[in-house]
Design brief:
Layout (H helix, E strand, L loop, with lengths): L2 E5 L2 H4 L12 E14 L7 E5 L5 E9 L5 H12 L6 E5 L4 E3 L3 H13 L4 E5 L5 H5 L5 H9 L3 H13 L7 H8 L2
Parallel strand pairs: 1-7
Antiparallel strand pairs: 1-4, 2-3, 2-4, 5-6, 5-7
Helix pairs in contact: 5-7
Length: 182
């Protein structure tokens, strides 16, 4: 199987053991709705990028060809890299027409892209936005910026650095708002 991993955030710039299992990151024409709308417990409350059909904007994501032809192995490797559970790893298997995602319409879009590019499988981090649930407020760029300013200074610094390290093409409403404040 020819399998690719999708990335739009720290997978691309935060090099770890996982990167030994994939090729170089390539730009693609696949656009997914992405936003910094997940409050991350592992990043002490910082906002991280997720597929977010409600608050996200279409962003061209990147892909890397996996070295292993096993979909299951790549799912397990990404799960370990992301420090999450299997339920938060999405995939499309074009060989047996299976998929798993919180967003079926997104999985269909990814499947169409994979077919067009002759990939047999695609794996991605499939975390959901949790901003509204965690804060009790509707996600908006200005609101999220104000939320980030409530974090302890050291966490705040790391949170803003995380946003700035995202690939250039990841221009979400929150990132644009933050950049307008400089």
């Amino acid at each position: 199987m020819r399998i690719v991993i999708l990335g739009w955030g720290s997978l691309i710039w935060d090099i770890r053991e996982f990167n030994n299992h994939i090729g170089e990151w390539n730009k693609s024409d696949l656009e997914l709705p992405i936003e910094f709308s997940r409050i991350s417990s592992s990043r002490k409350g910082a906002l991280t990028l997720v597929i977010d059909p409600i608050n996200g904007v279409d962003v061209k994501v990147r892909y890397a060809i996996a070295k292993s032809p096993s979909l299951e192995e790549n799912i397990e490797l990404l799960k370990k890299r992301e420090g999450t559970t299997l339920k938060n790893i999405g995939f499309v298997n074009l060989i047996n027409n299976e998929f798993k995602s919180y967003h079926p319409q997104i999985a269909q879009k990814i499947k169409n892209w994979a077919e067009k590019n002759n990939f047999d499988g695609v794996v991605w981090t499939d975390l959901k936005s949790n901003y509204d649930k965690k804060t009790g407020k509707i996600f908006e760029a200005k609101e999220a910026f104000e939320y980030l300013k409530t974090l302890p200074l050291e966490v705040q610094k790391e949170a803003f650095e995380y946003i700035q390290k995202a690939p250039k093409e990841v221009q979400t409403p929150l990132r644009k708002y933050i950049n307008s404040k400089k």
